[in-house]
Sequence to fold (550 residues):
Amino acid sequence: MPPSAPIKSRISGAFAESPFAKSGIPDRLGLGGFQSMAARYSIFSLIRNALAYHEDWPAAWRSPEPKPAYDVVIVGGGGHGLATAYYLAKELGVRNVAVIERGWLGGGNTGRNTTIVRSNYLWDESAALYEHAMKLWEGLSQDLNYNVMFSQRGVLSLAHSQHDLRAQSRQSNANRLGGIDSELLTPAQIKALVPVMDLRAGGRYPVLGGALQRRGGSARHDAVAWGYARGADALGVDIIQECPVTGFRIDNGRVQGVETAKGFIQAGKVGIAVAGHTSVMANLAGFRLPIISKPLQALVSEPVKPVLDTVIMSGAVHAYISQSDKGELVIGAGTDRYVGYGQRGSLPVSEDTLGAICELFPSFRRLRMMRLWGGIVDICPDASPIIGKTPVEGMYINCGWGTGGFKSTPGSGWVFAQTIAHDRPHDLNAPFSLDRFHTGYLIDEHGAAGVAH
Amino acid sequence: MLLITCPYCGERAESEFSYGGEAHIARPSDPEKASDADWADYLYLRTNTKGVYFERWLHAHGCRRWFNIARHTVSYEVLAVYEMGAPPPKLDTKSEV
Fold:
């Protein structure tokens, strides 16, 4: 169709009594009173916009200049920060909120992970936290009115040795006791589930068994950031991109606001959700964290026909693989061994991972890889996150998700919003406070985190 | 792939080395008097600098000796290599934002 196609289906005037007209919220969509109707995605809006040759879709969120002051400023416009703003506005009535992001939404780890979602962690504290996220995932597309393409295709972890089998059996039983679905599979069951896999794996990585979480799967990572951004924006949250934080103003141990590239922004409370750059923010605020930042890399192949409908992961060989809806094989590798902020991984790490993938899936050997990238993950000594208060009054952190932050995005935002609104952690994240490194109450999830750190 | 100059063997590929984390972290000199916070600081807290970082490396698949390097954690450039026990070189270690 030519772009100047004359047919338009815009209904003007019919929705002049828009709630936005009175609320003082700017007409971000440029559609006058029509916007509240147009903003909701449905089969009807799809048909209406199809008739208008898809030229009139409104912007999904505004891009305002920052106001001088907010009740809450969230630093970091990835999935976790945007989810936090969304739940603050939606569930806690805190709507005078800004999310400030140094780059573009979801351009950090939210857009760089391998999109795996699961909740089969070992300890009760973690299982409760990740399972809370899983329950939110299960209704997320409906809640956000945005298709995050959540697909519960199952996540299968492989065991390659007797030790792996024992560890897996312990973890699987712990999951089942905690009410989280998990099944131990025999090699024959694995072969039936994933015919393309060679269980002998060249004799080098024999598959002796596996643990399957059927409710696990994957989601479209960009859509998660965009869906939360759109949802938060509709509730009045200002999303400010290309606005790096350069410092914090702190008086008598209490945060007053943030210094940014767009000037000083006063804030009653500040929440930090910046993953790999958390230590940099803490340094600006004058405290230290038990975090090290390293690149974790991933790569995708050229698209092929459907061949793999389960997410396969192997902690022992630092490899995980799934097939996207576009047909690309999405492969996750391990972390570099050393501190790095370079957003690129070391070649020996991806080489090791691809070596193992080729042994497990001999038919993938001739696939070409299209892209290889890295994201900076923030790793805690116990491979569990830190969600809670900081030594600075009114400042909160949500970090340390390491190699597994994407799966927890909804739950992380939810508990962080609760923590910020009430100035104390929710029961779900109370065990994940910063002072566990003083008390020694660590929550060691190196086994369940899936990637050797 | 980093090329690291072992002070004893010369330039080798990163895969020959093991990483020992941040350098110059002193164990509390009087353990009986160290508080929980002191122990947390020693065991867990790290500078994790975005910029010049002092760190320990082990030439695991070579001479098996430890040494320190100063490395930039964004460009990954190795700025100095020095022996264990030697003081860190005078470099600007201010964190980038």
Observations:
- The radius of gyration of chain B is 15 Å.
